[in-house]
Amino acid sequence: MLRARSHLYLALANLLWAGNFAFGATLSSQVEPVSLSFFRWALAALPLVLLAWAIERPDWRAAAREWRWHLLQSVLGLSGYALLLYSALGTTGAVTASVVSAINPAAIALAAALVLRERLTRIQGSASGSRSPA
After folding, report:
1. What is the pLDDT tens value at each position of the chain, 134 positions in all?
2. pTM to 2 decimal places
3. Do residues 24 and 94 touch, judged by C-beta distance below 8 A?
4. Cα–Cα distance between 113 and 116 in angstroms, integer?
5. CA–CA separation, 112 vs 42, rounded Å?
6. Distance CA 80, CA 12 (A)
7. How does DSSP assign 71-95, residue by residue?
8. Quick one: CA dihedral 80, 10, 2, 51, positive or negative?
9. Rg (CA), the chain
């Protein structure tokens, strides 16, 4: 039962992720990327906070003390990614954008190895490392 639920959650995550590309490509010709990104996060903020509260039980006081770091991460990571994605979807298709996005983890690992001279482990460097055991 737990394995079936895990597979359902993984499929749902992929469906929502892919839906974001298709939805963004459809709306990018009608809505500015800044507005699209703003409304995406404005609508998602309350459900995400509720999920964090229910599942993770975060230490809100500690999070408030680190607000500058959280703001920076939000602007560069969450909002920046969405803004660049919706800008890109104005010039390319959803499939192309999703393929480029799927390459990101490998590109980050390669950049870390080349620029920061980090050593990749066998699991990080192999395609089979991303699969779970049967």
Report:
1. 788 889 998 999 888 888 889 989 988 889 899 998 888 888 888 998 898 889 888 888 998 999 999 899 888 888 888 899 999 998 999 999 999 888 888 888 888 889 998 888 877 666 544 544 44
2. 0.69
3. yes
4. 6
5. 33
6. 24
7. HHHIIIIIIHHHHHHHHHTTTS-HH
8. positive
9. 18
